[in-house]
Design goal:
Layout lengths: L2 H6 L30 E2 L4 E2 L1 H9 L3 H10 L3 H9 L2 H17 L5 H9 L8 H4 L6 H4 L7 H22 L1 H22 L9 H18 L4 H13 L9 H20 L6 H18 L2 H4 L1 H5 L2
Antiparallel strand pairs: 1-2
């Protein structure tokens, strides 16, 4: 789909605010709605018109129960558009970082338990199997500047990207990008221990590039920022894992491409299937060191 085709397709914009793009659909009427028009429902969100229809169909007892137990509608709408997942990830990451600062050996043990080192995935080499490190690596950082810059980038991107994609898709993007970064480190820097959410952040950058281009936005500034950060990873002495950056970026590009090509409600099953396939391919790549050990161990 070209940019012009996208702009002419009203389904890509909120039906109540035609100037606002969105990837989120009302679960009842399946029309596109922006964060301001979203009200949380039992599954997904609904638009204001469907909310009114639903309220009209309620019995007096149901209306009384809703008034007693439900939050005000205005608060629900605000909550629906707020980047809750972004804030939650920042909060958990900051909490873990504070734990690593506790003296007496506790802080270092927390970091050691969550950091990523590829050999710990292969019991034949180390005698242990700790696959959770593929994901927990995004929770630990080497210092205040490391965690601060990563979380600042997450905050700036997440405020835009999460309301646009929806919370479930945004979290999926973040998790798969983290996995992609860890897999790239496994294949390209097998014996290098790494920490940080850089792989996930670069996945968000990649998604922003694809979705911005799909929406017809000017992505030159984003491309320059991504390019500069990629180059920094190759500068000697910077102690930056360019492998995680590349792995996260490529994964983010692929996931975002899936989102932009399968946003119709009839394609929901296809979208989920493709995302599962991305995860399966990443996991399959972890068998490369087993099948071709000389190739990976020499990296």
């Amino acid at each position: 789909m070209t940019t012009d085709d996208f702009r002419r397709n009203s389904e890509n914009f909120c039906y109540r605010h035609p100037d606002r793009q969105s990837f989120v659909l009302c679960q009842r009427c399946l029309r596109t709605i922006c964060p301001e028009c979203q009200t949380p429902a039992a599954v997904g969100v609904i638009c204001p018109e469907c909310l009114r229809d639903q309220q009209k169909a309620q019995s007096p007892a149901q209306r009384k129960a809703e008034r007693r137990w439900s939050r005000p509608r205005a608060a629900s709408i605000v909550a629906a558009g707020s980047p809750v997942v972004t804030y939650a990830i920042i909060g958990v990451t900051a909490f873990v970082y504070l734990l690593t600062l506790i003296p007496g050996g506790f802080g270092s043990s927390v970091q050691d338990a969550l950091m990523f080192w590829a050999p710990w995935l292969y019991p034949g080499l180390t005698g242990v199997f700790e696959p959770w490190r593929l994901f927990t690596v995004a929770l630990v950082h080497s210092g205040i500047w490391h965690v601060g810059l990563n979380m600042l980038a997450l905050y700036m991107i997440g405020r835009t990207l999460e309301p646009l994609l929806g919370r479930g898709r945004f979290l999926t993007l973040y998790v798969l990008s983290t996995l992609g970064g860890s897999v790239a480190v496994t294949l390209l820097a097998f014996t290098t221990p790494v920490v940080g959410a850089s792989g996930a952040i670069f996945g968000l950058f990649g998604a922003l590039l694809v979705i911005g281009r799909h929406l017809g936005a000017n992505i030159a500034g984003i491309a320059i920022v991504v390019g500069i950060n990629l180059v920094i990873g190759f500068v000697p002495g910077m102690n930056v894992s360019w492998q995680a950056h590349v792995g996260g970026l490529v994964t983010g590009l692929v996931v975002a491409l899936i989102f932009t090509r399968t946003r119709a409600v009839r394609q929901r099953g296809l979208q989920i299937g493709l995302l599962v396939a991305v995860g399966a391919v990443l996991v399959a790549l972890l068998f490369v060191p087993v099948l071709f050990p000389s190739l990976v161990l020499s990296a």
